[in-house]
Amino acid sequence: MWKKDETPEPPTFTRPDVMPTPVRVAPTETPNQRATIGSSITIRGDVTGDEDLLIEGRVEGSVNLQQHSVTVGREGEVKANVFGRVIAVEGRVEGNLKAEEQVILRASAMVEGDIVAPRVVLEDGARFRGGVDMGESVSARGGSAASGAAPASSGATRPVAGAPAQSGRPSSPTTAEAPARVDAGTPREAEASAGKTDGARKTTEVSA
Amino acid sequence: MDWRRGIGRAPATTAPPPGGAVAEPVEGAAPGVAALLDGVSEDRTHAVLDLGAAADVSLRLYARFARWVRFADLLGEGGWARGAGSPTGMWTAIPPQPEHPYDLVLGWDVLDRLFPEHRPRLVERLAELTAPGARLHLVTRADDTLARPLRFTLLDVNRFRYEPAGTAPLPRPRLLPAELTKLLLPFQVLHAFTLRNGLREYVAARPR
Questions:
Q1: In order of start, what are the domains of chain B with their CATH numbers?
Q2: Does ipTM exceed 0.85?
Q3: CB distance B76–A175 less than 8 Å?
Q4: pTM above the 0.80 mark?
């Protein structure tokens, strides 16, 4: 069956002097592939990895999947700071959320913590208490603003060097825009205007 | 953009007649909000503190002006009780914005909800967290027809929506304009708008 002259030479192996470094095998780029922390699982510690993650259980510590999406499912309870490319929350999170692209709080979400992301979406019904820092806008990275993106939808520009946001604590953040409005009236006038009821000088009667 | 377009104008409204009770969400003009945002630059250099509940529509609106937005939800479920009871609680409920002092504060009906002895503490806290020039927006009851807490959502620069938020009666007596003016110091009341639905909006500012 095999001719002798066609028998391939056996491969030669070289024995490395040192053990090879373990290769971290990245998951294939299958869109829906993600790991799951099931509803009966509790993890205390740091969660890292190279694939998307769905949390339906409890995590206390930190979650760091900076290049991947993290979803806290309806049953998920996270007491941790979460880093991800896209973070979607349907369950409960007590901790800060930092996303490279977007944070989405679904209608069932309950989040207490700060959010840092260029785009933040709060669906109707989502309960959120905390701060939002939308500084790293998509446009600042050379991208384009997308619909539904809270900070990027206005076409606003980034503050230039020396502007309040970059200089730290501006002494008068609204000075240049409306000094007349803010400084209008002396304290006595202001007090008088509010001290009176509907007939006050600055009191305007409108329907609502 | 014409920031003053809503002031003093009677817009289309779904508000109940004067004296009517609020049983479902109501949309109406918010000339006080329009005055608050009048002339504020849309450069996203500002920091907004909203003492009400978080909402996507509000966040999008704030994002025109602000990089930093904090929803303290001081009025929400358990929130105001936790924040009002002690100086520490107030600190926890309204943390500082490290990068930038708040320069736009929307307090909604928080003062109406707080017991009188807790109100000065809130104002003191707001004074700590804001810079000179900061603006403050508040809503109070103009009469006793609205004796229940409300949840406000900012819909546009001159419109808001409000709906019942709980059944707990508001502390009595209601705040009178002269009391409020005195209470708000060092903020000075610049504008007061009496709405036909039993609400009154105030816009105040910290002098420079």
A1: 26-205 (3.40.50.150)
A2: no
A3: no
A4: no
